Amino acid sequence: MHTTMLLCLLWLAGSALPPALPPSAVQETAPVDRPTTFVVAVDCELARTRTWLLKDASDEQVVETAALLIKKRCAAMRVSVEVTLDAAQRRLEIALPAVPNPRQRELAESMLRSIGLCELFFLADAEWTKVYNVDIALERQKLETWRKANPTTPLELFNTLDEEQGGPTARIAWIPLDPNTPANKYRPGWAVLLPASLEEHFGVGSFERTFLAEGSYGKPAIGYEMRASRQPDFERATADLRGRRRLAVVIEGQVVSSPKLETVQAAGGVIEGSFAPAEARRLVQALQELHSPLRIVEIR
């Protein structure tokens, strides 16, 4: 999808936040200061419509890919995690170690709800990757080598590879662009920096609400408001990047916008793109309903 790229700050001064989204039906049976296990149902049919896998992938392949993607996120954040697969039931059990405060569990839950639906990343440009000692030219070369050998394989499968297998370094992921947009024909995808901690991860699980909005020139857009508990995290993450960095807004597995940060982002924003009215409504509904390939069905 070719997009007009912009993210507008929405300040919430002087008004109360709208009601939060209805909580999911989740069973909680363990205190938060003990090891936590998330039981996640994998919607294999939905995953096959995204950019994760080939459309003829088996359910087992879908579940395995979902597990690898979760491990990739956790490895970037240095979060110890054990993932148990049950391909027959299309489920994953994701066990996190005991954490010193309940907020870590809340942030992990938010991350799991966001994967495959909507996440916000910083683009991995050359200047930024120097800070993290990442050779972006080498990362691009690895991708090009893999792509020559796998010309039709979804890009997300490259992200699941270990470095020893020729995959990207732990802090880098490659996100595909809309292949139907002519300008994207010769672009393999955009490199993004995966968050280094749970506090630095943002996505639909961090939003208080999403809604239809009007963007530049009256075009349909997607508005969102950040949860109050996440606003300080978002402000810290973006405060020193004004005018120098871009966000990659990833919805349903593709970059839909890459706005340049001109102001400190805290309370929310508007995601603009070449959305048809019906598509904008569909995406807003998907975000509101957390319609993701991954669904938390139990926390214990």
What's the total helix number?
A: 8
Number of strands: 15
Beta-strand proportion: 15-25%
CATH architecture: 2-Layer Sandwich
CATH class membership? Alpha Beta
The biggest beta sheet, please? 6 strands, antiparallel
Radius of gyration: 18 Å
Q: Could you say what the CATH topology is called?
A: Gyrase A, domain 2
State the share of residues found in helices, binned by percent: 25-40%
Q: Specify the overall morphology.
A: globular
Strand and helix layout:
Elements: E1 7-9, E2 27-28, E3 36-42, H1 44-49, H2 59-76, E4 82-86, E5 91-96, H3 102-114, E6 118-123, H4 126-131, H5 136-149, H6 155-159, E7 172-175, E8 190-193, E9 202-203, E10 207-214, E11 220-226, H7 231-238, E12 247-251, E13 254-257, E14 268-272, H8 277-288, E15 294-299
Parallel strand pairs: 2-15
Antiparallel strand pairs: 1-14, 3-5, 3-15, 4-5, 6-8, 6-9, 6-12, 7-8, 10-11, 11-14, 12-13
Structure description:
The chain is globular. The protein has a single domain, classed as Gyrase A, domain 2, CATH 3.30.1360.200. The strands form three sheets. Strands 6, 7, 8, 9, 12 and 13 form a six-stranded antiparallel beta sheet that branches. It has helices at residues 44-49, 59-76, 102-114, 126-131, 136-149, 155-159, 231-238, 277-288; strands at residues 7-9, 27-28, 36-42, 82-86, 91-96, 118-123, 172-175, 190-193, 202-203, 207-214, 220-226, 247-251, 254-257, 268-272, 294-299. Residues 1-32 have low confidence and may be disordered. It is built from eight helices and 15 strands. The protein is of the alpha+beta class and 300 residues long. 27% of the residues lie in helices and 25% in strands.
